[in-house]
Design a protein that fits this description.
Layout lengths: L2 H6 L10 H14 L3 H16 L5 H13 L4 H44 L3 H29 L3 H16 L4 H17 L37 H26 L4 H15 L4 H13 L7 H12 L8 H12 L6 H27 L10 H30 L3 E6 L2 E6 L6 H15 L5 H18 L4
Antiparallel strand pairs: 1-2
Helix pairs in contact: 2-5, 3-5, 4-5, 5-13, 5-14, 6-12, 6-15, 6-16, 6-17, 7-15, 8-15, 9-10, 9-14, 10-13, 10-14, 11-15, 12-13, 13-14, 16-17
InterPro entries: Chr_Tranpt_l_chain, Chromate_transpt
Keywords: Cell membrane, Membrane, Transmembrane, Transmembrane helix
Family: Belongs to the chromate ion transporter (CHR) (TC 2.A.51) family.
Length: 465
């Protein structure tokens, strides 16, 4: 055997991994999962595909494409999917819960700090700096997703239409997603290539073959459930999700803050296709403008928390639930009510994610090569670019200007900035963050920490009001 032959010989498949061993790998992934879904998926790919070789490139991308079809956070669902593939339901629960846990603990602690000390000058200055960087982060998301999704003229047209509908006409996000999915489904079914794209965050080169990995190419036995097992899975996870919601509605009534948190975030869990930033757009539209649980500035603060802590970006929803219940505590102490509200929002947001995976993953092979489904997914992603652009504009209005005014012209209604209310220091920090992200290629965490430090410096210089 020559040296050249030895160089190309496939490596031996990895040894079997126990659930206990997998636990520590999933915990490591969770602690490294900063920077939004693209960064989190890249971390998973590096560790699970390149380093551990638990799963191959094509199987990883196949799982990712399925998770991109689902409402909710695709990175957390991908972790759950791969954990389920390896160690059945227990493995999926371990992977999915660990992916959430560090961020949930961190955001809850920061929520306490926020309501107890948020008016303290140095803490307020820190969040002032965070908000400036968040604008750059969301703009980066627009560019990243747009670069992947808007490869054709119809996709760009759909993204533009989505932005116009949601920004100028206040169209509901779920309706935009439904319309985009129908357009993409029809296009794919007709064989058109109007919408095409791929999942974000994964490698573009197939460096690890499925056959050379721990999972191999074959389906595990638990990926062939009987109909009885499928129904049982659905009933268990639906009960875990909906029984607490029903109990709150019966015990407290539909107008109680806990009932509204449960129903709102349960609805969100079913309609927020398109990943974390699409979720944020929907929450900003509803929790801020309709429910009044928090202000636009506080929404930005919460997003800053989620960006600087590990785990899913939509852990910001825990902060939203916390503030909503904190401010409508009733007979409870505000901190207790806020804690319960945050935990409730987290529960009804993430339990459905496990349902989608455990119920749908065994049938994922049926979606492979389905042109209509691929077209629907790509069209949704294109529309999400417009929705996230709307989120970026919304953040810019409430970061760079102290006041906005609602303008109306027939069916057109939108927020416009009051030009005389521009905040020069916020504009300066936001501009610096944009330069750092787009020109200097600084990572998200470094940018957020830098603008936070700058906010504190401005506080000590006495220039912040």
């Amino acid at each position: 055997m020559t040296a050249a032959t030895m160089d190309v010989a496939p490596p031996a498949p990895p040894q079997p991994v126990t659930l206990r061993q997998a636990f520590w790998v999933w915990l490591r992934i969770a602690m490294l999962s900063f920077g939004g879904p693209a960064g989190q998926i890249a971390v998973m790919h590096r560790i699970l595909v390149d380093e551990k070789r638990w799963i191959g490139e094509q199987r990883f991308l196949h799982a990712l494409n399925y998770c991109m079809l689902l409402p909710g956070p695709e990175a957390q669902q991908l972790a759950t999917y791969i954990g389920w593939l390896m160690h059945r339901t227990k493995g999926g629960i371990v992977a999915g819960v660990l992916f959430i846990l560090p961020g949930a603990v961190a955001v809850m602690a920061l929520s306490w700090v926020y309501v107890l000390y948020g008016r303290v000058g140095i803490v307020s200055a820190l969040f002032f700096g965070l908000k400036a960087a968040v604008l750059a982060v969301v703009l980066q998301a627009v560019v990243r997703i747009g670069g992947r999704a808007l490869k054709t003229a119809p996709a760009r047209l759909l993204a533009t239409a989505a932005f116009v509908l949601i920004f100028f006409f206040g169209a509901p996000f779920p309706l935009i997603v439904l319309g985009a999915s129908l357009i993409g489904w029809w296009s794919g079914k007709q064989g058109h290539a109007a919408f095409r794209g791929g999942g974000h965050g994964a490698s573009k080169s197939a460096t690890v073959a499925d056959a050379d990995t721990l999972l191999g190419e074959d389906l595990p036995a638990h990926a062939r459930p009987t109909w009885r097992e499928t129904v049982q899975t659905a009933l268990i996870w639906l009960a875990l999700w909906l029984i607490p919601v029903a109990a709150l509605l019966i015990a407290l009534g539909p107008d109680d803050v806990f009932s509204r948190i449960a129903t709102f975030f349960s609805t969100m869990a079913m309609v927020t296709f398109g990943g974390a930033y699409a979720v944020l757009a929907y929450v900003a539209q509803q929790a801020v403008e309709n429910y009044g649980w928090l202000s636009p500035a506080e929404m930005l603060d919460g997003l800053g928390m989620a960006e600087t802590t590990p785990g899913p970006l939509i852990m910001v929803l825990q902060f939203v639930g916390f503030l909503g219940a904190y401010r409508e505590a009733g007979a409870l102490s505000p901190l207790l009510a806020g804690t319960l509200g945050g935990l409730l929002a987290t529960w009804v947001t993430f339990v459905p994610c496990f349902l989608w995976i455990f119920l749908g993953a065994p049938f994922i092979e049926r979606l492979r090569g389905n042109a209509a489904v691929a077209g629907a997914l790509s069209a949704i992603t294109a529309a999400v670019v417009g929705v996230v652009l709307n989120l970026a504009v919304w953040f810019a209005l409430h970061t760079l200007f102290r006041q906005t005014a609602m303008l109306s012209l027939g069916p057109i209604r939108f927020d416009a900035p009051v030009l005389g209310s521009v905040d020069p220091w916020a504009t300066l920090l936001a501009g610096a963050a944009i330069v750092a992200v787009f020109t200097l290629r600084a990572n998200v965490i470094a940018t957020l920490l830098g603008t936070s430090a700058a906010g504190i410096v401005l506080h000590f210089l006495g220039v912040l009001g």
